[in-house]
Specification:
Length: 161
């Protein structure tokens, strides 16, 4: 017989549209539900030349700064023609490298925009490091019944640097 478990579900508030990119994600990207009492670490990545974190708050429990991290990200780059561009979902903290499937292209990098200089059409895996701030959500003491869910909303407010 399987034992039922209560869960805490973490969701991040949607931000306003902006030209500056801020990404909030759980450090353990495969999860969004946690057992009561579990501390949840999440990452905040943004263009530090354009934004700064104004505040971080949770609808339940408390959020505390938890240091910094460098994480590796991978995404597929498809370059059908010369000067084709791919916008990476995160701003790289260093150079982007590519593993090509077939024809190799020389790439250019400006912020999170990657362009193919020649050798197109080409497709490859783009690999890069991302600098993130880490935060920890400390949930409140909860006494939940089996199968009960407790949603928590985390809001990261950004402002111009």
């Amino acid at each position: 017989m399987t034992q039922a478990q209560a869960t805490i579900v973490v969701d991040f508030g949607a931000g306003a549209d902006t030209d500056a990119v801020a990404v909030v994600e759980l450090e353990d990207t495969g999860k969004s539900s946690f057992a009561p009492g579990t501390e949840v670490v999440f990452l905040v990545h943004y263009d530090q030349s354009k934004l700064r974190v104004a505040s971080v708050a949770a609808s339940s429990g408390m959020v505390v700064p938890f240091g910094q991290a460098q994480v590796e990200r991978r995404t597929q780059g498809v370059f059908p023609a010369p000067d084709a561009a791919v916008d990476l979902p995160h701003i790289p903290s260093g150079p982007v490298t590519a593993t090509w499937y077939g024809k190799a292209a020389a790439i250019g990098q400006e912020g999170r925009r990657i362009t193919a200089r020649n050798g197109t059409p080409a497709i490859g895996e783009l690999v890069y490091k991302v600098s993130c701030l880490r935060y920890k959500l400390i949930p409140p003491p909860l006494d939940l019944a089996d199968d009960e869910t407790w949603p928590v909303l985390v809001v990261v407010r950004m402002e111009a640097a």
